[in-house]
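I am still getting used to backbone structure tokens and would like to learn alongside you. Please make up or recall a protein chain and show it to me in full. Would you write everything just below, so we can both look at the same thing?
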Amino acid sequence: MTNSEKRELERTQRQIAEILRRVDSLPVLDSHTADEVLAYDEHGLPEPAANRLADKQMHPLPKP
């Protein structure tokens, strides 16, 4: 890897780290657990989103 490629990689890593810091600082808008959000049927397959929303009385996130 050339010095230029190393600098580009480091710059990209810093940018990703900054994005992650910004995302981590955002408020939680939906406190459902991952299992509540991604529900599974009796065969262990993910349920369609429409079923999860109706069955769990979950609501889509409000539009910004």
